[in-house]
């Protein structure tokens, strides 16, 4: 009977000491044997701990309850970490400012990596092999073992947290360590100023309240397979530096632009546009995208000093004089092409950073090929049409006046077209003798011989005369005082 009771007692003790955790995760719900403020790995039931660099395996029957534990009777395996060779927590140096954790690649591939050819995969592996293995400096656990990131709580002195897939911060877009972020992953750490997540693929886009927003100054999620921005970004109103490079974004929405921002890295995405207002932005990287025109808001960034637009899909960009001046004034401007410049003459081209671009007239706010979609080409066409119509109207008016003038000249009944001199006086003293067209028709008085007086009018005396001795003409001699003596003839 005693033997039976002892056996039952041992069985109950063994059951009570089992681990009820069903997932292995990086967590702050650690063994009491782990160091304060340093996340640990809590292993699922049945999983064993294989210590990595800066890690120590422990089993604790008195661990704090995890999200999956059944009570204080759990006895789970944990891997406790120090933060690296310079962490002297064992000597009671508990506080630290920067936390870094690496998750070396496992066997799971993203859908982008799965589409690589064997040659591409081999090239990437070769490139990664040349990078320094940074797990020799920071704690880590393989993605084969670790896929879950539970809520973490850091000491108040910890202001920066970095999580990296692979063994190096350097990575290739599409190759990631696959992880699952728990809700409120870092949100309780309002003291954090810098958050970095690199080479990590998530099963779903990070939901709101995943990250703290109050004091964030630098936020980086590079090569995280993102096509949707984290919702928390909208409320990071103190953020200064943002890096979303090597993702799959198509635009940068206005609601994620903050006046505090000074640097924005959106390189190697799928951008076709970039919106938002950035009055204090100094550094903008849009390289490696699919932009066909320069976003117009760039020319409204008064503090911009560095701009990278290389490796895009620009087609026939045309810049105004103001825009050319803006780009030339930048301390650093990188571009490989503005697109085809054959649509404009060489005289209408300028070079910026050694690259030719067509120019157009107008102010920076009415860009021709820069974010206004082709508006400059439309404006040039409309302007040309309006100009042509104005010229045609002016020519029509001139022709009408000329015809009317000729008609009036004939109305006075003289072959020369002389007008009544009194009319010239009435128009402000203009003299018919200043009309070169009429003067060219003037008759030489030596060719005229008076025959007899025909009559006297208000402005002169009319004679019957012979023109060149064989042609009778009527000759009108102007009265003295009106003008000097002159003669005009008409065929008699």
Automatic annotation (TrEMBL):
One of its GO terms (molecular function) is protein kinase activity. ATP binds at residue 476. It comes from the Eukaryota. It holds the Pfam family LRR_8. Residues 448-492 form the Protein kinase domain. SUPFAM superfamilies: L domain-like, Protein kinase-like (PK-like). Keywords: ATP-binding, Leucine-rich repeat, Membrane, Nucleotide-binding, Repeat, Signal, Transmembrane, Transmembrane helix. InterPro entries: Kinase-like_dom_sf, Leu-rich_rpt, Leu-rich_rpt_typical-subtyp, LRR_dom_sf, Plant_LRR-RLKs, Prot_kinase_dom, Protein_kinase_ATP_BS. Residues 1-19 form the signal peptide. The chain crosses the membrane at residues 378-402. This is Protein kinase domain-containing protein. It comes from Phytophthora fragariae.
